[in-house]
């Protein structure tokens, strides 16, 4: 009997069978964004923080950063008091930090379903899925180029996933759609297949402008003018280079009052020094320059200070994940960004493995847990990342998403209420007894322990009889069931029609290009 048939039979039963079916049935549940009740891990002492901050100011003042192919940016910097030499911008000590002070410490990103709104910054942690891979992988089809169908499937999975708070952005690159048009289809999918918050396009300023216009259709122009409805990723071309494409997208979003993640893209040893302190110095300098520029464009524009950091294998040149050095940088950067009073983006379900295997699990667990401890406020790539970011994996998506439930539970801290202290249970049981039947256990057993929705806890004999399925196989079954049970969230028919019309008109206006 297949899984669906077995489930139908179980639901017809009564008593314990019915209760077990109720506990294991798939439901579309939504968890609120995490508010941490646990302290952040402080890896740097006060002296180390002051040294890194002083070195970052020296870097900006003496070495400077490049703003390439962007004369308007150079003028803004000159008017603000920076020294301009060609495309090199040198910032007097304290200038960048003073400009960063106008960025909000927290902001709300609105979703079309207001129950899914997220508050980014402070003690909060918002989880978003993988971003950017050109390939996808599943057990049935193996590794292949991603399509728009894959993209829509991942958006549906995100909508169905309890522990994800955000629909994300480029959850995979739909390579069957022209490069100059795919951003329209991707945004349309996020806006119609999910009612969670989403990210806009950043691959050209014009595509960022399309993102703003489509958001104005979805939310109404007045609402978008007054509120943040997008948080989009702006990568710095490390080391110390701000290219015109990314800065052009940032300018569009900042002027529209929409949020940007200003994030260096660091591969330690290649795009930053091999040492932790040296990398932290570069990260801080790049972040301060990028956030400061957003404030030059529009003071008060919401910005997240990002740090995407990994190390490099010195034998092969491949990026490595889940390493102690990356953990140290993630923790240290969290302290530095909090001293800037800015929301912080870092960490994720990072791994270099080609498959959702033990390597993937070890590396992912390391980075997810460090993300929680480092005080991250926005975690991109929280589920689905495989093969160093080249692949969005269906199975790993749901495996990672399942484990995000652990972050929610850990962040709650320890319950020290009267119920949490459990003195009544200890008195009732006394020496030599057991707690299985006591009143306290009966009152709390349903919620006492976090339980995975995928991992197998059955006895060996039962597991063996059911086919000795590994975690990836169980995850594939879950993917299939989630997609089969997916239901699109309701959307106003007039809004849906207007979005579809905008996409159709924009795509018809230009020929396909698969190059840019």
TrEMBL record:
Q: Specify the enzyme's EC class, one word.
A: transferase
The enzyme's E.C. designation: 2.1.1.-
Task: Identify the Pfam families for this entry.
Answer: MTTB
* Cited InterPro entries: MttB-like_sf, MTTB_MeTrfase
A Gene Ontology molecular function term of the record: methyltransferase activity
Q: Where is this region: Disordered?
A: 1-24
Task: Cite the entry's keywords alphabetically.
Answer: Methyltransferase, Transferase
Q: Is Isomerase one of the keywords? A: no
Q: Does the keyword Transport apply?
A: no
| GO biological process per UniProt | methylation
The family annotation for this protein states: Belongs to the trimethylamine methyltransferase family.
What is this protein called in UniProt?
Methyltransferase
| Highest classification ranks of the organism | Bacteria, Pseudomonadati, Pseudomonadota, Alphaproteobacteria, Rhodobacterales
